[in-house]
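> call design_seq(struct)
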Protein backbone atom coordinates (compact mmCIF):
# COMPACT_ATOMS: atom_id res chain seq x y z
CA UNK A 1 0.00 0.00 0.00
CA UNK A 2 1.24 3.46 -0.81
CA UNK A 3 2.28 5.32 2.31
CA UNK A 4 0.33 8.56 2.78
CA UNK A 5 2.67 11.54 2.87
CA UNK A 6 1.50 13.78 5.70
CA UNK A 7 4.58 15.97 5.97
CA UNK A 8 3.77 19.68 6.10
CA UNK A 9 5.62 22.96 6.23
CA UNK A 10 4.33 25.54 8.71
CA UNK A 11 4.61 29.25 7.97
CA UNK A 12 4.35 32.26 10.25
CA UNK A 13 4.39 35.98 9.51
CA UNK A 14 4.84 38.21 12.52
CA UNK A 15 5.21 41.94 13.18
CA UNK A 16 8.11 43.74 14.86
CA UNK A 17 8.25 42.69 18.50
CA UNK A 18 6.00 39.69 17.90
CA UNK A 19 8.68 36.99 17.60
CA UNK A 20 8.01 35.35 20.98
CA UNK A 21 4.27 35.22 20.50
CA UNK A 22 4.77 33.86 16.96
CA UNK A 23 7.04 31.15 18.31
CA UNK A 24 4.47 30.05 20.90
CA UNK A 25 1.69 30.10 18.37
CA UNK A 26 3.80 27.98 15.99
CA UNK A 27 4.42 25.39 18.70
CA UNK A 28 0.69 25.18 19.15
CA UNK A 29 0.20 24.93 15.38
CA UNK A 30 2.58 21.97 15.42
CA UNK A 31 0.35 20.26 17.98
CA UNK A 32 -2.68 21.00 15.82
CA UNK A 33 -0.90 19.45 12.82
CA UNK A 34 -0.06 16.43 14.94
CA UNK A 35 -3.67 16.07 16.11
CA UNK A 36 -4.82 16.21 12.48
CA UNK A 37 -2.45 13.36 11.64
CA UNK A 38 0.34 15.39 10.04
CA UNK A 39 3.99 15.89 10.76
CA UNK A 40 5.89 19.18 10.61
CA UNK A 41 8.86 18.84 8.25
CA UNK A 42 10.08 22.44 8.38
CA UNK A 43 9.00 25.89 9.50
CA UNK A 44 9.37 29.14 7.61
CA UNK A 45 8.99 32.48 9.40
CA UNK A 46 9.09 36.07 8.26
CA UNK A 47 9.14 39.36 10.13
CA UNK A 48 6.73 41.54 8.17
CA UNK A 49 4.60 44.25 9.70
CA UNK A 50 1.78 43.91 7.18
CA UNK A 51 1.21 40.64 5.36
CA UNK A 52 1.37 40.89 1.57
CA UNK A 53 -2.13 41.30 0.12
CA UNK A 54 -1.50 38.83 -2.69
CA UNK A 55 0.76 36.20 -1.10
CA UNK A 56 0.91 36.93 2.65
CA UNK A 57 4.70 36.40 2.76
CA UNK A 58 7.05 38.45 0.58
CA UNK A 59 8.25 37.33 -2.83
CA UNK A 60 11.72 36.19 -1.71
CA UNK A 61 10.28 34.12 1.15
CA UNK A 62 7.71 32.63 -1.16
CA UNK A 63 10.42 31.43 -3.52
CA UNK A 64 12.35 30.02 -0.57
CA UNK A 65 9.20 28.17 0.51
CA UNK A 66 8.68 26.84 -3.02
CA UNK A 67 12.26 25.54 -3.11
CA UNK A 68 11.86 23.65 0.18
CA UNK A 69 8.65 22.11 -1.12
CA UNK A 70 10.12 21.06 -4.46
CA UNK A 71 13.44 19.81 -3.10
CA UNK A 72 11.72 17.61 -0.55
CA UNK A 73 8.52 16.75 -2.43
CA UNK A 74 6.35 18.38 0.25
CA UNK A 75 2.75 18.70 -0.83
CA UNK A 76 1.18 20.61 2.05
CA UNK A 77 1.72 24.01 3.66
CA UNK A 78 -0.07 25.35 6.75
CA UNK A 79 -0.09 29.09 7.50
CA UNK A 80 -0.47 30.18 11.12
CA UNK A 81 -2.77 33.05 10.15
CA UNK A 82 -5.94 33.47 8.15
CA UNK A 83 -5.51 33.54 4.39
CA UNK A 84 -7.87 34.88 1.75
CA UNK A 85 -8.95 32.59 -1.11
CA UNK A 86 -6.80 34.70 -3.48
CA UNK A 87 -3.70 34.38 -1.27
CA UNK A 88 -4.14 30.60 -1.15
CA UNK A 89 -4.42 30.41 -4.92
CA UNK A 90 -1.35 32.60 -5.49
CA UNK A 91 0.82 30.71 -3.01
CA UNK A 92 -0.24 27.38 -4.48
CA UNK A 93 0.64 28.53 -7.97
CA UNK A 94 4.22 29.25 -6.92
CA UNK A 95 4.82 26.35 -4.54
CA UNK A 96 2.78 23.66 -6.32
CA UNK A 97 1.64 22.43 -2.88
CA UNK A 98 -1.78 22.51 -1.19
CA UNK A 99 -2.11 25.48 1.14
CA UNK A 100 -4.37 25.72 4.17
CA UNK A 101 -4.56 28.15 7.10
CA UNK A 102 -4.90 27.74 10.85
CA UNK A 103 -8.70 28.02 10.85
CA UNK A 104 -9.06 25.38 8.13
CA UNK A 105 -6.81 23.08 10.15
CA UNK A 106 -8.89 23.61 13.31
CA UNK A 107 -12.07 22.90 11.36
CA UNK A 108 -10.44 19.76 10.01
CA UNK A 109 -9.81 18.54 13.57
CA UNK A 110 -13.36 19.45 14.52
CA UNK A 111 -14.53 17.37 11.56
CA UNK A 112 -12.52 14.42 12.86
CA UNK A 113 -13.88 14.73 16.39
CA UNK A 114 -17.56 15.62 15.94
CA UNK A 115 -19.76 12.74 17.01
CA UNK A 116 -23.29 14.02 17.50
CA UNK A 117 -25.59 15.03 14.66
CA UNK A 118 -25.59 18.61 15.90
CA UNK A 119 -21.80 18.70 16.15
CA UNK A 120 -21.38 17.31 12.66
CA UNK A 121 -23.79 19.79 11.13
CA UNK A 122 -22.15 22.74 12.88
CA UNK A 123 -18.76 21.63 11.58
CA UNK A 124 -19.93 21.04 8.04
CA UNK A 125 -21.68 24.41 7.92
CA UNK A 126 -18.58 26.16 9.20
CA UNK A 127 -16.48 24.30 6.62
CA UNK A 128 -18.82 25.21 3.80
CA UNK A 129 -18.67 28.85 4.87
CA UNK A 130 -14.95 29.07 5.52
CA UNK A 131 -13.03 26.20 3.94
CA UNK A 132 -15.03 25.67 0.77
CA UNK A 133 -14.48 29.14 -0.77
CA UNK A 134 -10.78 28.74 -0.06
CA UNK A 135 -10.59 25.34 -1.73
CA UNK A 136 -12.67 26.42 -4.69
CA UNK A 137 -10.19 29.08 -5.69
CA UNK A 138 -7.91 26.28 -6.82
CA UNK A 139 -9.85 25.50 -9.96
CA UNK A 140 -8.96 21.84 -9.52
CA UNK A 141 -11.23 18.89 -9.90
CA UNK A 142 -13.04 19.15 -6.59
CA UNK A 143 -14.05 15.52 -6.51
CA UNK A 144 -10.39 14.64 -5.95
CA UNK A 145 -10.25 16.69 -2.77
CA UNK A 146 -11.09 15.20 0.59
CA UNK A 147 -8.97 12.86 2.60
CA UNK A 148 -5.93 15.06 3.18
CA UNK A 149 -5.43 17.36 6.14
CA UNK A 150 -7.68 20.39 5.89
CA UNK A 151 -10.19 18.89 3.48
CA UNK A 152 -11.93 16.25 5.55
CA UNK A 153 -15.63 16.47 6.25
CA UNK A 154 -17.30 15.41 9.51
CA UNK A 155 -17.41 11.70 10.27
CA UNK A 156 -16.25 9.41 7.53
CA UNK A 157 -17.54 11.64 4.78
CA UNK A 158 -15.40 13.95 2.73
CA UNK A 159 -16.04 17.62 2.36
CA UNK A 160 -18.07 17.89 -0.84
CA UNK A 161 -17.48 21.14 -2.56
CA UNK A 162 -19.56 21.65 -5.60
CA UNK A 163 -20.27 25.27 -6.35
CA UNK A 164 -23.73 24.54 -7.72
CA UNK A 165 -24.83 22.55 -4.68
CA UNK A 166 -23.19 24.72 -2.03
CA UNK A 167 -26.09 27.09 -1.32
CA UNK A 168 -28.73 24.38 -1.21
CA UNK A 169 -26.58 22.16 1.03
CA UNK A 170 -26.05 25.08 3.43
CA UNK A 171 -29.78 25.86 3.50
CA UNK A 172 -30.53 22.19 4.17
CA UNK A 173 -28.01 22.00 7.03
CA UNK A 174 -29.29 25.24 8.55
CA UNK A 175 -32.80 23.77 8.58
CA UNK A 176 -31.54 20.58 10.27
CA UNK A 177 -29.64 22.62 12.83
CA UNK A 178 -32.75 24.62 13.67
CA UNK A 179 -34.64 21.37 14.34
CA UNK A 180 -31.86 20.07 16.60
CA UNK A 181 -31.73 23.42 18.37
CA UNK A 182 -35.40 22.98 19.21
CA UNK A 183 -34.56 19.65 20.90
CA UNK A 184 -31.74 21.33 22.76
CA UNK A 185 -34.12 24.05 23.96
CA UNK A 186 -36.58 21.42 25.20
CA UNK A 187 -33.81 19.57 27.02
CA UNK A 188 -32.57 22.82 28.51
CA UNK A 189 -36.08 23.73 29.66
CA UNK A 190 -36.33 20.32 31.33
CA UNK A 191 -33.04 20.92 33.10
CA UNK A 192 -34.28 24.36 34.17
CA UNK A 193 -37.40 22.83 35.64
CA UNK A 194 -35.25 20.49 37.67
CA UNK A 195 -34.17 23.62 39.55
CA UNK A 196 -30.69 22.16 40.01
CA UNK A 197 -27.71 24.53 39.94
CA UNK A 198 -25.89 24.36 36.61
CA UNK A 199 -22.18 24.73 36.04
CA UNK A 200 -20.29 24.70 32.79
CA UNK A 201 -16.66 23.65 32.44
CA UNK A 202 -14.73 25.98 30.17
CA UNK A 203 -11.06 26.50 29.43
CA UNK A 204 -8.23 26.12 27.01
CA UNK A 205 -8.05 22.95 24.97
CA UNK A 206 -6.21 20.07 26.69
CA UNK A 207 -6.52 21.69 30.16
CA UNK A 208 -8.23 18.60 31.58
CA UNK A 209 -11.91 19.58 31.37
CA UNK A 210 -13.16 16.15 30.37
CA UNK A 211 -10.89 14.45 32.90
CA UNK A 212 -12.50 16.65 35.57
CA UNK A 213 -16.05 15.71 34.60
CA UNK A 214 -15.01 12.05 34.43
CA UNK A 215 -13.47 12.31 37.90
CA UNK A 216 -16.64 13.79 39.37
CA UNK A 217 -19.27 11.77 37.58
CA UNK A 218 -17.59 8.85 35.81
CA UNK A 219 -18.99 10.34 32.61
CA UNK A 220 -16.65 8.22 30.49
CA UNK A 221 -15.82 11.05 28.07
CA UNK A 222 -12.79 10.53 25.90
CA UNK A 223 -9.94 12.49 27.48
CA UNK A 224 -6.62 12.42 25.71
CA UNK A 225 -3.48 14.34 25.08
CA UNK A 226 -4.77 15.84 21.85
CA UNK A 227 -6.16 19.26 21.08
CA UNK A 228 -9.94 19.46 20.75
CA UNK A 229 -10.57 15.89 21.93
CA UNK A 230 -14.04 17.09 22.94
CA UNK A 231 -16.32 18.84 20.52
CA UNK A 232 -19.83 17.93 21.65
CA UNK A 233 -21.09 18.97 25.08
CA UNK A 234 -21.94 16.40 27.73
CA UNK A 235 -24.08 17.16 30.79
CA UNK A 236 -24.04 14.97 33.89
CA UNK A 237 -25.70 15.16 37.28
CA UNK A 238 -23.31 15.33 40.21
CA UNK A 239 -24.17 14.88 43.86
CA UNK A 240 -22.03 16.92 46.23
CA UNK A 241 -21.01 15.27 49.52
CA UNK A 242 -23.69 17.32 51.34
CA UNK A 243 -26.36 15.74 49.15
CA UNK A 244 -26.96 18.79 46.93
CA UNK A 245 -27.30 17.80 43.30
CA UNK A 246 -26.02 19.87 40.43
CA UNK A 247 -25.61 19.63 36.67
CA UNK A 248 -22.18 19.99 35.09
CA UNK A 249 -21.52 20.38 31.36
CA UNK A 250 -18.23 19.69 29.58
CA UNK A 251 -17.71 21.65 26.36
CA UNK A 252 -15.34 22.30 23.49
CA UNK A 253 -12.03 23.87 24.47
CA UNK A 254 -10.76 27.28 23.45
CA UNK A 255 -7.59 28.23 21.60
CA UNK A 256 -5.84 31.46 20.65
CA UNK A 257 -6.67 33.03 17.30
CA UNK A 258 -10.06 31.32 17.28
CA UNK A 259 -11.83 33.58 14.82
CA UNK A 260 -15.18 35.03 15.76
CA UNK A 261 -16.96 33.31 12.92
CA UNK A 262 -15.81 29.94 14.24
CA UNK A 263 -17.05 30.74 17.73
CA UNK A 264 -20.33 31.83 16.20
CA UNK A 265 -20.59 28.58 14.21
CA UNK A 266 -20.57 26.61 17.47
CA UNK A 267 -23.00 28.94 19.19
CA UNK A 268 -25.66 26.29 19.58
CA UNK A 269 -23.42 24.09 21.74
CA UNK A 270 -21.49 26.93 23.37
CA UNK A 271 -24.83 28.32 24.55
CA UNK A 272 -24.60 25.74 27.34
CA UNK A 273 -22.11 28.18 28.87
CA UNK A 274 -24.59 31.02 28.57
CA UNK A 275 -27.31 29.14 30.42
CA UNK A 276 -25.20 27.98 33.34
CA UNK A 277 -25.32 29.56 36.79
CA UNK A 278 -21.54 29.64 37.09
CA UNK A 279 -18.44 28.65 35.15
CA UNK A 280 -15.69 26.28 36.21
CA UNK A 281 -12.59 27.54 34.39
CA UNK A 282 -10.04 24.73 34.12
CA UNK A 283 -6.43 25.81 33.64
CA UNK A 284 -3.43 23.60 32.87
CA UNK A 285 -1.25 25.05 35.64
CA UNK A 286 1.78 23.09 34.40
CA UNK A 287 1.80 24.86 31.04
CA UNK A 288 4.25 27.76 30.82
CA UNK A 289 1.64 29.50 28.74
CA UNK A 290 -1.16 29.17 31.25
CA UNK A 291 -1.57 32.87 32.05
CA UNK A 292 -1.94 33.64 28.39
CA UNK A 293 -4.33 30.72 27.97
CA UNK A 294 -6.40 32.16 30.80
CA UNK A 295 -6.63 35.50 29.09
CA UNK A 296 -7.67 33.83 25.82
CA UNK A 297 -10.37 31.96 27.75
CA UNK A 298 -11.55 35.17 29.41
CA UNK A 299 -11.69 36.89 26.02
CA UNK A 300 -13.85 34.16 24.52
CA UNK A 301 -16.14 34.09 27.56
CA UNK A 302 -16.52 37.87 27.14
CA UNK A 303 -17.48 37.42 23.51
CA UNK A 304 -20.07 34.84 24.57
CA UNK A 305 -21.40 37.57 26.85
CA UNK A 306 -20.86 35.59 30.03
CA UNK A 307 -18.03 37.77 31.30
CA UNK A 308 -19.92 38.55 34.49
CA UNK A 309 -20.91 35.01 35.52
CA UNK A 310 -19.37 33.77 38.75
CA UNK A 311 -16.20 31.72 38.21
CA UNK A 312 -14.39 28.96 39.99
CA UNK A 313 -10.79 28.63 38.79
CA UNK A 314 -9.38 25.13 38.87
CA UNK A 315 -5.61 25.05 38.51
CA UNK A 316 -5.28 21.52 37.21
CA UNK A 317 -2.32 19.19 36.65
CA UNK A 318 -0.99 20.26 40.04
CA UNK A 319 1.03 17.02 40.08
CA UNK A 320 3.28 18.57 37.43
CA UNK A 321 3.84 21.86 39.30
CA UNK A 322 6.04 22.94 42.16
CA UNK A 323 4.23 24.21 45.28
CA UNK A 324 5.82 27.65 44.63
CA UNK A 325 4.29 27.82 41.18
CA UNK A 326 0.85 26.91 42.49
CA UNK A 327 1.19 29.52 45.21
CA UNK A 328 2.09 32.20 42.64
CA UNK A 329 -0.80 31.26 40.40
CA UNK A 330 -3.26 31.47 43.25
CA UNK A 331 -1.98 34.92 44.12
CA UNK A 332 -2.29 36.02 40.53
CA UNK A 333 -6.04 35.51 40.55
CA UNK A 334 -6.30 37.93 43.46
CA UNK A 335 -8.57 37.66 46.44
CA UNK A 336 -11.92 38.00 44.71
CA UNK A 337 -12.14 34.82 42.63
CA UNK A 338 -12.53 31.34 44.01
CA UNK A 339 -9.50 29.21 43.22
CA UNK A 340 -8.61 25.57 43.83
CA UNK A 341 -5.67 23.43 42.79
CA UNK A 342 -6.32 19.92 41.57
CA UNK A 343 -4.92 16.84 39.95
CA UNK A 344 -7.95 15.65 37.97
CA UNK A 345 -6.07 12.50 36.99
CA UNK A 346 -5.70 11.19 40.55
CA UNK A 347 -8.35 13.17 42.39
CA UNK A 348 -5.90 14.95 44.65
CA UNK A 349 -7.55 18.22 45.74
CA UNK A 350 -11.07 16.91 45.18
CA UNK A 351 -12.23 17.84 48.67
CA UNK A 352 -11.27 21.48 48.22
CA UNK A 353 -13.02 21.47 44.84
CA UNK A 354 -16.25 20.01 46.14
CA UNK A 355 -16.36 22.41 49.06
CA UNK A 356 -15.97 25.34 46.65
CA UNK A 357 -18.65 23.88 44.38
CA UNK A 358 -20.85 23.65 47.43
CA UNK A 359 -20.35 27.40 48.07
CA UNK A 360 -21.06 28.27 44.46
CA UNK A 361 -24.25 26.22 44.43
CA UNK A 362 -25.48 27.84 47.60
CA UNK A 363 -24.64 31.37 46.49
CA UNK A 364 -27.79 33.45 46.24
CA UNK A 365 -29.82 30.82 48.05
CA UNK A 366 -31.67 31.26 51.31
CA UNK A 367 -33.40 29.01 53.80
CA UNK A 368 -37.13 29.71 53.92
CA UNK A 369 -40.16 28.31 55.72
CA UNK A 370 -43.31 27.56 53.69
CA UNK A 371 -46.75 26.49 54.83
CA UNK A 372 -48.76 24.35 52.40
CA UNK A 373 -52.44 23.84 53.37
CA UNK A 374 -53.53 20.21 53.06
CA UNK A 375 -55.54 21.24 49.96
CA UNK A 376 -52.34 22.34 48.15
CA UNK A 377 -50.41 19.08 48.07
CA UNK A 378 -49.70 19.50 44.33
CA UNK A 379 -47.77 22.69 45.00
CA UNK A 380 -45.85 21.01 47.79
CA UNK A 381 -44.88 18.16 45.49
CA UNK A 382 -43.63 20.59 42.93
CA UNK A 383 -41.46 22.41 45.51
CA UNK A 384 -39.57 19.14 45.90
CA UNK A 385 -38.43 19.57 42.29
CA UNK A 386 -36.99 23.01 42.88
CA UNK A 387 -35.60 23.04 46.38
CA UNK A 388 -33.47 21.23 48.87
CA UNK A 389 -35.94 20.24 51.60
CA UNK A 390 -34.49 20.44 55.09
CA UNK A 391 -37.45 19.52 57.27
CA UNK A 392 -41.19 18.90 57.05
CA UNK A 393 -43.67 19.14 59.94
CA UNK A 394 -47.36 18.28 59.91
CA UNK A 395 -49.36 20.86 61.87
CA UNK A 396 -53.06 21.72 62.05
CA UNK A 397 -52.96 24.32 59.22
CA UNK A 398 -51.00 22.13 56.80
CA UNK A 399 -47.43 21.02 56.04
CA UNK A 400 -44.65 23.24 57.34
CA UNK A 401 -41.56 22.97 55.16
CA UNK A 402 -38.09 24.36 55.69
CA UNK A 403 -36.24 24.49 52.36
CA UNK A 404 -33.16 26.01 50.70
CA UNK A 405 -34.32 27.92 47.62
CA UNK A 406 -32.97 30.37 45.08
CA UNK A 407 -34.69 33.69 44.55
CA UNK A 408 -36.60 32.45 41.50
CA UNK A 409 -38.10 29.53 43.41
CA UNK A 410 -38.84 31.75 46.39
CA UNK A 411 -40.84 33.98 44.03
CA UNK A 412 -42.70 31.04 42.51
CA UNK A 413 -43.86 29.80 45.91
CA UNK A 414 -44.30 33.27 47.41
CA UNK A 415 -47.89 32.79 48.50
CA UNK A 416 -46.91 29.83 50.71
CA UNK A 417 -44.11 31.71 52.46
CA UNK A 418 -44.64 31.75 56.20
CA UNK A 419 -44.12 35.25 57.58
N1 LIG B 1 -0.50 15.00 34.72
C1 LIG B 1 -1.80 15.29 34.60
N2 LIG B 1 -2.42 15.09 33.43
C2 LIG B 1 -3.73 15.41 33.34
C3 LIG B 1 -4.48 15.88 34.45
N3 LIG B 1 -5.74 16.10 34.06
C4 LIG B 1 -5.80 15.78 32.75
N4 LIG B 1 -4.59 15.34 32.31
C5 LIG B 1 -4.25 14.88 30.96
O1 LIG B 1 -4.34 15.98 30.05
C6 LIG B 1 -4.78 15.53 28.77
C7 LIG B 1 -5.99 16.33 28.33
O2 LIG B 1 -7.09 16.02 29.15
P1 LIG B 1 -8.60 16.22 28.69
O3 LIG B 1 -9.46 15.95 29.87
O4 LIG B 1 -8.86 15.48 27.43
O5 LIG B 1 -8.55 17.79 28.39
P2 LIG B 1 -9.75 18.70 27.80
O6 LIG B 1 -9.63 20.03 28.51
O7 LIG B 1 -11.05 18.00 27.92
O8 LIG B 1 -9.26 18.85 26.30
P3 LIG B 1 -10.12 19.09 24.95
O9 LIG B 1 -11.40 18.35 25.02
O10 LIG B 1 -9.19 18.55 23.92
O11 LIG B 1 -10.28 20.57 24.84
C8 LIG B 1 -5.07 14.04 28.92
O12 LIG B 1 -3.95 13.33 28.43
C9 LIG B 1 -5.24 13.87 30.42
O13 LIG B 1 -4.90 12.57 30.85
C10 LIG B 1 -3.77 16.07 35.71
O14 LIG B 1 -4.32 16.48 36.71
N5 LIG B 1 -2.45 15.74 35.70
MG1 LIG C 1 -12.33 17.41 26.50
Amino acid sequence: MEKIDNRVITVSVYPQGGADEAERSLLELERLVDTAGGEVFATVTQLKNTPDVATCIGEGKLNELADICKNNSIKKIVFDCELTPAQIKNIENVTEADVIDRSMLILDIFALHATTAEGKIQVELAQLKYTAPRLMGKGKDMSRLGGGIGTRGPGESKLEIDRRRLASRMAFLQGELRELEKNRLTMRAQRDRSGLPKACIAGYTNAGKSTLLNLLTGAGILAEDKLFATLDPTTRKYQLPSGIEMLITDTVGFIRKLPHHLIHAFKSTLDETVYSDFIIVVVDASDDECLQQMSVTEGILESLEVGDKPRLYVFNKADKCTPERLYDLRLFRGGSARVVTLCAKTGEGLEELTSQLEHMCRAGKTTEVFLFPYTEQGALNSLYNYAEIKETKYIDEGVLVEAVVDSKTKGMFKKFLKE
